[in-house]
Amino acid sequence: MRNRSGIILIHDGKLALIERHRQGRHYFAFPGGGVDEGETDEQAAIREAEEELGIRVKIVQKAAEILRMGRRNQVYFLVDWVDGEFGTGTGEEYGEVDPNHGTYNPLWMPMEEVLEKNVVPRGLAELTIKSHKEGWQESAVIHEEYK
pLDDT tens digit string along 106-128? Predict the structure, then answer.
């Protein structure tokens, strides 16, 4: 099972997320995906931002590493938007709708709504709000989920 690498992008008081409808669930996920063989976590995060959001980003810092028992690890990077048009992703997610994979809709969520909505992983949503208000730590925060 591949590790996952994702981004935390905050712009004009809003958080970039992917709205998902999948197998009867409705939730919002941080942009990101699997790390390909021979690719670093940073490279995967940058590639996934382009594929899923249609934008180029630059890494500011590693923000969080989520260790999940029995599931792939996840690494998230705080990023800055370099260029590109948000919402023009061309990744495989945007082809014909596959009921098994559901729908993908990139959107901006106001920061004050993040904890009111079903944003996953929840621990990362909480960390993002706290760090946005109080400042980001220099080293990655390790959050363990036992689900």
Answer: 999 999 999 999 999 999 999 99
